[in-house]
Amino acid sequence: MKIVMVLGNDFLKPFVDNRVYKEAKALIKKGNEVTVICWARTIDNMSLNNLPITEKYKNINIIRVFQNISPISNPIFIRIFQHMTAFKKISKIIKTIKPDVVHCHDFNTLLSMIFVKKKNTKIIYDSHEDYPSMLSDVCSSLTVAFSRFLEHTMVKLFTDAVITVCPKIAEKFQEYNVKTRVIMNCKNVSEYNIPDEGLQKTRLLLNAEDKTIFLYIGSLGKYRGLGDLINVFKERNCDNAFLVIGGNGIMKHDVMEKMRHMHNARFIGTVQADRVPLYTKAADVIVSLLDPVKESHRIALPNKLFEAMAAGKPVIASENTSTADIVSNEKCGVIVQYGDAKKLHESIVYLTDKNVRKKLGYNSLKAAETKYNWEEQEKELLNTYKSMMR
Hints:
alpha/beta; Rossmann fold; 2 domains
């Protein structure tokens, strides 16, 4: 079977898109031919136009489409025209390949199907997040409402199956009367089998060898509790705790400034995807604070939850989130009310107890080994393809 995956960013730069890679590899193992058509857009003001138009990465065919997008300050009609130009380029390549299935990753790539849909081509919509809810952080309520309507319309008219990353988002699509499967971004425990020598070296380089390391690696954006987290470590006695933050985003410089001169914290900047298991395994506690006021945060199941489980680490999660539901059900961490600095401080002190961490970490690893792992999710992916092609 010929499968084309469509991705709205570059597949390999700045690092490999892990979900797309794992899904592609699972399909290739079953004898399918997979091509990823990716829109190689500018990242952090750095053009990707120097990348090859085609290449092969671990048996995955890669084809790049180049189309720059004007800054958001430019007139919207210019940006719309640029998006439509990219979608036409993508659709032209798809028509040339003549695939059996087009697998669209996220909503922006689904729009390219306007130029593609044919009776003999099956289309899967892979919703990595609740796109309209995500837009609510930066767009007007009218734009959010329109995007929700457009997504609904595209799903009804063009897709044969929908897969998404968590049950709460799946519920939304089921309201559209569309068959939906949940394929979470789970990790394999084997990815986190890292020699003790490497872990000790990492802790030593962080200057936290004998301390309890609390780790956050992810988007440095708003509504993620980063300010509260830093302030707790800065202003309160956290015993033998040590904070490590890594990532990139709009709050990067603010985070760096706040952590400057802190004796019990370290900012490690952008972390390449293949280094995340090392830092996660070397840490003692993984922090995942999301503001439940934001719907996209309330329903999300962030990667760091599954990374913590695969590494056998306890999690600090925000109350009234999907993450907290799993942490509570699996008894693998501590739940705090978002914005409650006192409770957060108490939780940090509580988790400096090695015996507490050992018990919660055991539960975390057990959950990863039994159900929250990629082997289980891979089965769901293959079943989705099987049922759709009948």
